[in-house]
Batch of 2 targets.
Target 1
Amino acid sequence: MNRRKHSIFLILFVSFIVMALEPSQILAKEKKESFKIPSHVLNISKDNTFPNSTEDEEVIEPSELTKELTDSLDIQIENPVLIKMLNETTLNPSPIAFGYRGMVYLGRWPLNYESLETTINWEYQQVNKNELNNTSGSEPQEINYIQQEQKEIKGALTNKISKPSDVKKMMLLTAKEKTELPLSYQTVIGKNTKKDNTYKVPSDKLAVLQSYAPAVNEKGQVTFGEVYVKLKGSDKSIAVKNVTKQGIGAWIPIQDHVSFSYKLK
């Protein structure tokens, strides 16, 4: 009897663990699926007549000195521009500088970006339209995508913020990491770019093949603070004062991808 009770207890315990894990696993799967490229969106990187340059944002690693200066902070510094500046800073207070005190103001900086919502609009901006009129035809025909004019698609922040260039870099790095998509604030689709994908056009029908550039909509908040370097004798550290947060959003195009919408009239 005791062995039976023990078995029942084990089954209940394992079931509880599985039930506790399932919601997080489902959430992770749904999150991954939300960034999956649908079948009506095609990669044109090899077909694009305009060679887009890949916008690879450099991930700046903090130097040993920068780590030493920021380790004691309650606020995380992720701004690559600020980290690079701190890496290039040379501080060598004299070991015999007893009583020496100093504070150097480095300015007010965006320190980090926290992503709160990331979504994709697969029809962010219309870039092309191909039509085929087969209303008077007796046989089915085919239509395929051919870019009529060169189109430049630009992303941008959705509201004003201090040091927008730094903020855009942090948001781009975050969005790339979350979506694993080729993102860039600017992408171009060259004239006469084409794909081999074809669509059937029955007789007595007008076919319209519309093309769109997709983009990621990134929303979150930026933490700002006044950054100081504190020197006290041979000791050195970073201090952050007057910390504030500001909400921000951005549209970031998906480079070299086109979304298609096909309709018959």
Target 2
Amino acid sequence: MNINWLRTFIIAAENENFRKTAEKLYMAQPTVTAHIKQLERDIGTQFFRRSGRNIVLTESGRRFLPHARSILSSYDRGTHDLLAWEQGYKRKLNIAVSPLLAATMLPYIIRQFMERHVDVEVIVQVKDSKEISEMIEKGEADLGLLQMKPLQKTLYVEKIKEDKVICVCPHDGGDLESSPPIDIHDLFENQTLFTYNHPEYWDDLLSAIHAKYSKVRTMVVTQVHITKRFIEEGLGFSFLPEMSLRRELMEGRLLEVRTPDLKLPKASTYLITREDTEENRLFQAFLKEYFS
């Protein structure tokens, strides 16, 4: 059995179309057909039947599909492990991280960690905060960095950082020194407030805003980097963690707005793990040193 036949079979089963399978695998459609026929001949059964222009799995195909996925997954893991060993890695650390952290502090942290621990292979998966705790619980990642405290009681959770949340709006192109300060009341009355770009603090913050400002027009934008882009384009304003805004504030693309009538929250960063492994302990110790 050829491993490429299995890969073609799995993609074909997922797409139920040989043409789409050929496009995804960057091969000619006759090659896809040949792979399927060779696999069927090798196993001794038929995996697909025609349904118009598409294909449909037979009962044999449906029964074999999970085994094919398991074989391919085992092969890929084994190949990756061998290549990692040949590159000098003796251990592996699989980190799941939220988009905000991946785009801000993580690159520097990872570079410093890898320079200190050259034998540890680091794998980074960027996921939403809600997904990360589920991944750790299922063993799909070793360690998680996120902005939302997980609900699972089986996980080890540690708050490793708190960051100021500030209000920001676009630069209007004027001279900052001679321009009057931006009025937060004017923003609430005339601009759109982008919300829920951070998973933890928005419910309480919106309650405080609505208690003080009667007219607030909001728009949900669930990613920080998209929120920043919208603000730069003059579409509105928002409340974001300061660590995500350092470059934009320094370059003058965004402006901080004072909010004397609002007590702003903190944005927390949590570290979560399920097992106490040596690799996890190494990274936790490094983070504590980094943030101390």
